[in-house]
Amino acid sequence: MAAQHHVHPHRADMLSVEEARKRVLALMEELPSTEVPLLEADGLVLASDIHARFDIPALANSAMDGYAVRSDDQATVLRVVAQVQAGQMPLTPVEAGTAVRIMTGAPLPEGADAVVPFEMTDEPKLLAAGLPLTEVTIHEGPLSGQHIRPAGEDVARGSLVLKRGHLLDPPSIGSLASLGYAQVPVVRRPRVAILATGDEVQTPGESPEPGKLFDSNTYTVAAAVRRYGGIPQLLGIARDDRADLKAKLQQGLSADMLITSAGVSAGAFDMVKDALDDLGSISFWAVRMRPSRPLAFGTLQAPDGRMVPHLGLPGNPVSALVAMVQFGRPAMAKMMGRPPAPLPRIEAVLDEPIVNADGRRVYARVLLERRDGETHARLAGGQGSNLLTSLVMAQGLAICPEELSEKPAGARVTVEVLDWLDPWEQFNSVRLTE
Fold first, then answer.
1. Residues 21-39: what's their mean pLDDT?
2. Please, are residues 240 and 315 in contact by the beta-carbon 8 Å criterion?
3. Exposed, middle or buried, 199 (CB in 10 Å: 0-12/13-18/19+)?
4. What is the pLDDT of residue 39?
5. Is 2 part of any domain?
6. Per-residue pLDDT at 189 exceeds 70
């Protein structure tokens, strides 16, 4: 295995990623619950326990198309006394020497304790000959309970079906529907206000102006907010003017969380610090990571008295999105009642080195490939924090720890798999660790 170089001491003037994340999560609270239509609940967290109000299935029913019979009946030729379909209630009981023709899902008639499938009778021959189904011959005697779904087989009345805190997904949505729920109590989605800052930024769709760049951060962050379950509220762009910044920030105080991009470093035109000081309590941090070193976090006081969490992301687009993944993603998860779980991690073999020049944890954008039974990682282009295309191509973030000056080619590396990958792409290119 390639040697790994231990050089860098921890930088005491910077927070570790874990400490910064811990401070962010400490100020996050679960949002109130609400009731939403069933289909809108997918991906949300259940706000109360769900108990079955009745058995599912409610009645014993047939698992096959066939004939409802008595398993202790000695006769092999049975008189057909009725037919029952799914959605109908049987009116004629099964007595010795009789059978009821029954369809899949239809309730079992009184007296019957087994179902004989059509193919185990002479019905196919009778139908082919055009003869009436008044009598049917059973080719093989059934066992008691054969091809019957008992009442309550799936869910018993009064049982706990889904616990509070359950993350709703397609099967649990279906389970709620089977219990008759049209509305479901959930922890509501957070409304996240997003504000870009800077005189150099303009809105996409406008005519390009010399010396300016289009605002990508708002849309990158908003897409991440939506993907992570929130509702983005776009505030536009605040200019490098304290009054304009403050006015725009105040517009975002009706939200559950406010995210800004840029204005958190030590630049001469960074006005965000001053404007935020007027509205709340904000800390400005240097986090021991590359990209995304500068970060701001704290609370702003809304007119209704609420304290609104504020996350200030760096201005470079890669830095903004990586910080959103590392801090915004778990913050939103906690607000929605989910565990703030990290991204899934895998181990990979580096095909080229990751250099760590200044003692920060490096999150290198990498491509992943399965070769010879191993997952391999290689850099997804240039690693500058302004190079968003490298993050477009990347499948994961390979980590070079703070204390290493380099992860050499051939070394094993931990990779955080980006959670916006197509699942099939993820399945084919990587093997997730337990």
1. 96
2. no
3. middle
4. 95
5. no
6. yes
Distance (Å, whole) CA 244 – CA 248: 6
Determine the Cα–Cα distance for residues 420 and 426; give it in Å rounded to an integer.
10
For the segment 226-256, what is each residue's pLDDT rounded down to a tens digit?
A: 999 999 999 999 988 888 899 999 999 999 9
User: Which domain, by its residues, includes 177?
Assistant: 43-53+155-187
Q: Which pLDDT does position 433 carry in this prediction?
A: 45
The confidence score (pLDDT) of residue 5 equals 60
Query: How many Å apart are CA 413 and CA 408, to the nearest integer?
Result: 10
Contact 304, 293 (CB under 8 A): no
Q: What is the C-alpha to C-alpha distance for residues 120 and 142, in angstroms, rounded to an integer? A: 10
Helix, strand or coil, per DSSP, at residue 101:
strand
Which amino acid is present at 421? L
Residue 36: inside a domain: no
- Look at strands 231-238 and 191-197 and give their pairing: parallel
Which is more confident, 232 or 273?
232
Of 394, 360, 392, the residue nearest 380 (C-alpha): 394
CA atoms within 13 A on the CB side of 40: 14
Q: Is residue 434 part of a domain?
A: no
Q: Residue 73: helix, strand or coil by DSSP?
A: coil
The structural domain count of the chain equals: 4
Burial 239-254 (b: 16+ CB within 10 A, else e): ebebeebbebbbebbe
pLDDT at 22 over 70: yes
38 is a domain residue: no
104 and 86 within one domain: yes
* Residues counted in the chain: 434
Quick one: which of 364, 423, 348 has its CA closest to 399? 364
Q: What is the pLDDT of residue 10?
A: 53
- How far apart CA 406 and CA 358 sit, in angstroms, is 11
Q: Are residues 251 and 315 in the same domain?
A: yes
Task: Classify burial at 30, counting beta carbons within 10 Å of its beta carbon; exposed 0-12, middle 13-18, buried 19 or more.
Answer: middle
Of 310, 314, 331, 279, give the one whose Cα is nearest residue 198. 314
Whether 374 has a pLDDT exceeding 50, the answer reads yes
CA–CA separation, 50 and 12 (whole Å): 49
Whole-number pLDDT of residue 274: 77
CA 19 – CA 25 distance, rounded (Å): 10
pLDDT in tens, 412-421: 999 999 988 7
Beta bridge partners of 196: 237, 261
pLDDT reported for residue 434: 37
